[in-house]
Each structure stands twice: as C-alpha cells, then as structure tokens.
Design brief:
The protein is α/β, with parallel strands linked by helices. The chain is built from 9 helices and 5 strands, in the order H-H-H-H-E-H-E-H-E-H-E-H-E-H. It folds into 2 domains: 80 residues, Orthogonal Bundle (Methyltransferase, Methionine Synthase (B12-binding Domains), Chain A, domain 1); 123 residues, Rossmann fold. Bound molecules: CO-5-methoxybenzimidazolylcobamide.
Length: 211
Amino acid sequence: MDLSKISQTLITGKSDELRQLIEEAVNSDVKPVDVLNQGLLPGMDAVGQKWKAGEMFMPEVLRSAKAMSKSMDYLRPMLKEDELGNAGTMVIGTVAGDLHDIGKDLAAMMFEGAGYKVVNIGIDQSNESFVNAVKEHKPSLLGMSALLTTTMPRMGEVINSLKEAGIRDQITVIIGGAPVTEEFAQEIGADLYAPNAGSAVEITNEYLQQN
Ligand code: B1M
C-alpha cells in the first residue's frame, strides 16, 4: 500500500478518511510502526513546513493535529504489541509554558513500542512537576520536549532542580523538539538529544548499553 496517501490525508485533516486508510493498511499487513514512520510522521512534518511557508493556516493545522492525535490513539495499542520487553520506566512531558504535544506523544509512543513503561505527564508541566514525577515513578529515563525557543530554557532549569533534589545522577535525561539542538543539550547538561521520535529510542538504547 502507498503510505504517502496517509501523509496526504493527514495534511487535509480528514480524520475519518485517515482512519479508514490506516485500518486498510494495518489489515493488509503493513506494520503499525511503518504506518507511523512512513505515513503519519512525514505528513505531520509537511504540515509544519506548510505552516511555516504560509501555505496552511492555524485552523487547518489544528485539524491535522487532531487527526494525528486520533490516529495515535488508534495505533498506540498496536505499537505496544511490538514490545521488545521491559526496558524500564520513562517519565516524559512538555515543559512549562509550552502546549505542543504531538512530537512529545510520538516520542512517548516510540518508547512504549520499545518496551518502556511510559508515564506521560502531559503539556505545560512546571519544573517542580517534573521533579515530583521523577521522585514518584523512579524512572531510569526522563524525556522533555519543547517547541518554542522561549520555553527551551525550562529544560535546563528542570535539570538544575533535579541536581538540587539530589536525584540527577539516578536518571538519563533526553530532550527533543524542533528548536532543540545537540549543542543546547550539552550546554544544559542533558545526556541525550534526539532530532526525531524515530531515532530517540535507538539513541537511548545505544547510550544505555555503553553506560
Ligand atoms: Co505552534 N509553533 N504555536 N502550534 N506549531 C511552532 C512550534 C512554530 C515553529 C511555528 C512557526 O512559527 N513556524 C512556532 C515556534 C517559533 C519559535 O519558538 N521559534 C510556534 C508558535 C509561535 C506557536 C504559538 C506561539 C502561536 C500563537 O499562538 N501565536 C502557540 C504557542 C502555544 C504554546 O505552546 N504556549 C502555538 C500553538 C500551536 C497549536 C496549538 C496551534 C499547535 C499545537 C497542537 C499540539 O501540539 N497539540 C501548533 C503546531 C501544530 C505547530 C507546528 C506547525 C507543528 C508542531 C508539530 O506538531 N510538528 C510548529 C511548526 C513546526 O514545527 N515546523 C509550530 C510535528 C511534530 C511531529 O514535530 O513536535 O518537532 P515536533 O517533534 C518531532 C521532533 O522535534 C522530535 O520528534 C518529533 C517527531 O519526529 N521530538 C522529540 C519532539 N519532542 C521530542 C522529545 C524527545 C525526542 C524527540 O525525547 C524526549
């Protein structure tokens, strides 16, 4: 099946049509992870580019974002079926002041698919919420996402709060989001940076094997 149809339909934001195409793909033995990586993710990337280029406007972007979320709700349990085993616990959230959750949820889903127990604490999470979630769930991995240049600094603040609480050394910190870079990750003392949700698990697993 041509998965670019899924990308194109996601761009139009037609949720029902998109669901039908995803069901068709899955029923014709396309792996759910391929639907995600080769259909939905390229579609959402295109939405981002079109908005930036002024070719799409906010209501259209929101329609696509909603269609993406609905598709993720449908695909998530199937991605779990691909689980590789119990890889540990991860806490993930979007930092304070930031309401973007599509990339964060994709990353969460990829980690779930790879066998992590994922505690998704949601969007607009204060520095304190991150620290409390780490204390409560005792994860081996903390993931933070930021999509705004103005909210990126919260990531460094969370890391500092973890140090103050004496728990920084107990976890691996991975960060991501469109404006985030490898250099920024090093600057704030994060362990890992992933440019996209697809590579996040691989980068993490490689790091954990070496450390
Ligand atoms: Co917003 N927005 N937005 N937005 N939005 C951006 C980010 C922006 C770049 C658009 C632009 O101007 N070109 C711009 C930020 C500019 C900047 O800071 N430099 C922007 C702005 C300005 C705003 C508002 C301020 C607009 C306004 O109100 N005037 C406002 C802010 C609200 C707030 O957060 N306080 C706002 C609002 C919104 C919507 C609500 C309309 C909607 C969000 C819906 C939602 O998330 N539920 C929205 C959207 C959809 C976008 C764009 C178009 C798309 C973001 C997205 O979902 N991309 C975005 C433009 C763009 O990115 N080009 C934009 C698809 C997603 C799959 O990619 O999230 O980057 P992304 O995730 C990737 C990787 O980054 C990575 O993996 C993902 C998949 O491979 N990744 C991780 C992300 N997190 C990770 C964590 C990891 C690992 C990898 O480990 C933990």
